[in-house]
Amino acid sequence: METLGYNVILFPFLLFVLKVVNIRAECERPNIGENRVLTSEPDKPPYLNGSTATFRCSYGYKAVHFRASKSIMCIDGQWTELKLQCQKRSCGSLPDIPNGKFLLEQGIEFGATAVAECNMGYYLVGQQYRYCENSGWSGRNPTCEVVKCLEPPSIVNGELEDVSYEMYEYGQAVTYRCKRGFTLIGQATISCSINGTFDPSPPQCLVVACEKPNIPNGKRVEGTMPPYKYKSSLRYECQLGYKMNGSGTMVCEVSGWVPPLVNCTVITCPAPPGTENGRINEPLRGVYTYGQTVTYSCNEGFKLIGASERTCSGDETFQRSPPQCQVITCPAPPGIENGRINEPLRDVYTYGQAVTYSCMKGFKLIGASERTCSGDETFQPSPPWCQVITCPAPPGIENGQINEPLQDVYTYGQTVTYSCMKGFKLIGASKRTCSGDETFQPSAPRCQVITCPAPPGLENGRINEPLRDVYTYGQAVTYSCNEGFKLIGASKRTCSGDETFQPSPPRCQVITCPAPPGIENGQINETLRDVYTYGQAVTYSCMKGFKLIGASKRTCSGDETFQPSPPWCQVITCPAPPGIENGRINEPLQDVYTYGQTVTYSCMKGFKLIGASKRTCSGDETFQPSAPRCQVLKCLRPHMQAGQLEPDQESYEYGQEVIYHCKILFYNRASKAVCSDEGDFIPTPHCVGHYGILLFISLVLLLLLAAAVVYLMKKKKQSNRYSPGIQYSKEESSLK
User: Fold this and answer.
1) Is the pLDDT of residue 9 over 70?
2) Is 590 exposed, middle or buried (0-12, 13-18, 19+ CB in 10 A)?
3) For residue 510, how far is the Cα from the chain centroid?
4) Looking at the domain that runs over 100-146, which CATH code has it been given?
5) Is the pLDDT of residue 6 over 70?
6) What does the alpha-carbon distance between residue 248 and residue 229 come to, in Å, rounded to a whole number?
7) CATH for 148-206?
């Protein structure tokens, strides 16, 4: 009985342990990829330790090695390596198409498309495309049939040179000819083309004749007399003093003379050009006719070189060459003191040529700066001279100053510089120089308050201050981005001296975070991404037997990192479990227990264990189930039918002794019993009867009883026999 009791307790416990081990070793649903898919099986998931998962190749793929294993096994929470490798199915080569071919630019593996194409002169009958599918090439091969043309069209006043057929194949040609008296216009031979018609269009048979040309002031120089038929040619020229407008050669075509008839017009010359430094003496006309003349003369200071008269000639130009007017020349002019002639000196100057004078720096020119070669072959007027240049002191400017100490008089080339007070900008040149006109140049600058236009806004951001129409020097604006964006560039811009806000405007860029790291003995619950945007979050959890230290949720924050700091997985530990009163922990106590470690309890003698004897360090860092307790052992009052107990109580404590007394005719094998640690009295109180005596007494009592019965019956009979007035028949008497 004791062995059976232990088995009843131990068997469920073993099942529980095995279940825990299996749960801890359970595998996640496998996801292999690479064109391999998991086959569905009943009761899966979950995938317990030792279970298998079977894969097959995706649609359109087949196994690289036929004997490769298609299954993997879950061992201690990890899947074994899958040997199955898959590759695209090949549909093989396509059969040839007579008079055509397939274009296999995508190859012959699953998903490829083959394009049918016919040779020149053939057209496709059937489907142009075939697709490589899981079961092979789709559809059937098309065919290439030869292109054919119907009978060629007939032409008016003409016929085919050969016998006509009802049908012609691609490339076959026919030739036309015209009846006598008619001319073939167009291509005599046409062919059956790729589109099933004859190309080019058939020719025409026409009667072509051209009239005799009538060209006034013209004469025929080549060609025959009329009549003029198709392709007859003539050439005309114009009479003296006339020109031909167009080509003088013409050909008789279907539409008539080609090109159209020309005419002879009077030769004209455009107005002749003038001559440099001279003139044409007569009033100019828009057009001059053949033989008209013009005369030339030179301007003052020039002389005429060449013929003075020119005539409009047959080539529509004036002949002879135009004359030239040659300039009068002067010798080189003299130089001046403290000055120079600006142009390089020549040995000879022509009429009207000039030289200019200028003084050296710091001098001004007194007299004419230019002298010209005149008609008397000398330079006029008289030469100038050079005098030192001075300037009075320049004025100051409002909201600014001249940077150098002022002088009463400045000499040529001396300068002053201007600058403005802070917050003002200089409008005009900052530097003025005593110039040749005895004034400071350029004009004096002025100082204007520096302003900036309102700065532009910011996409996905804002300017923090209310905007103004105009900002003055030194005023600033600050930028900030909307939530989820970060500022790239300076957050503060100031109205600067160049009338713009500096530095360059920032921009707002979406805040992103790189993928957060995993944690040892734990995992990120969601599928990892390469990049996370502001506000996106991940959650962490630990493997069984570990607890999460830190926040379980981390969010992509404004500093482009996940916050708060990553948690970590710490082995779950339990403090040493407490002892129990009147009992003990059977194993040596440790300071710390790790997840899954167990302790067992037992009680001291005289006590029994109430609750589970085994406790395990669990996920909540406590030992479970609750601690048992040791209860004082008591023995219930034994049932005594033939005796009595001393003392006589309902229950007895461990070790308590009782004395029991048996009734008469009974005896006890032991007169004392003790309450044991099993909750029973040892030995069991029991009164045993004296069976021999009891049997003898029972027999005596039975004999005495029987004798008494017999005696009573006899006595009754005698009483009935002597009763008066009552007679019984023989039968009734016997019944009685």
Assistant:
1) no
2) middle
3) 15
4) 2.10.70.10
5) no
6) 18
7) 2.10.70.10
State the pLDDT at residue 190. Answer: 93
Concatenated DSSP letters of 442-494: S---EEEE-EEEPPP--TTEEESSPP-SEEETT-EEEEEEPTTEEEES-SEEE
> What is the residue type of 691?
Y
Superfamily of domain 512-571: Complement Module, domain 1 (2.10.70.10)
Confidence check: pLDDT of 379 > 60: yes
Cis? peptide before 683, omega within 30° of 0: yes
If one looks up domain 634-693 in CATH, what number appears? 2.10.70.10
CATH of domain 390-449: 2.10.70.10
With contact defined as beta carbons under 8 Å apart, do 248 and 235 qualify? Answer: yes
Percent of the chain that is helix, strand, coil (3-state, to 5): 10, 40, 50
Topology annotation, domain 573-632 = Complement Module; domain 1 (2.10.70)
Residue 378 — φ and ψ, nearest 5°? Answer: -130, 160
**d(Cα 699, Cα 81) in Å, to the nearest integer?**
91
Return the SS3 of 433: strand
Which residues fall within 8 angstroms of residue 682, CB to CB, at 6 or more apart? 673, 674, 676
Length of the chain: 736
CA distance 569 to 341: 98
For 193-209, the pLDDT digits (tens) are 988 899 999 998 988 88
Burial 324-335 (b: 16+ CB within 10 A, else e): bbbbbebeebee
Does the structure show a pLDDT above 90 at 728?
A: no
Return the CA Rg of the chain: 68
Determine the Cα–Cα distance for residues 521 and 572; give it in Å rounded to an integer: 12
Tens digits of residue pLDDT in 630-640: 988 888 888 77
Residue 525, Ramachandran bin (φ over 0: left; ψ between -120 and 50: alpha; else beta) = alpha
Q: What is the mean pLDDT of residues 91-97?
A: 90
Structure tokens at 260: 């159209």
Every domain of the chain with CATH number 2.10.70.10 lies at 2-88, 100-146, 148-206, 209-266, 268-327, 329-388, 390-449, 451-510, 512-571, 573-632, 634-693
* Average pLDDT of the segment spanning 494-501: 91
* CATH H-level, domain 209-266: superfamily: Complement Module, domain 1 (2.10.70.10)
Contact 334/285 with Cβ under 8 angstroms?
A: no
- pTM of the entire predicted model: 0.34
Structure-token pair, residue 657: 């002794």
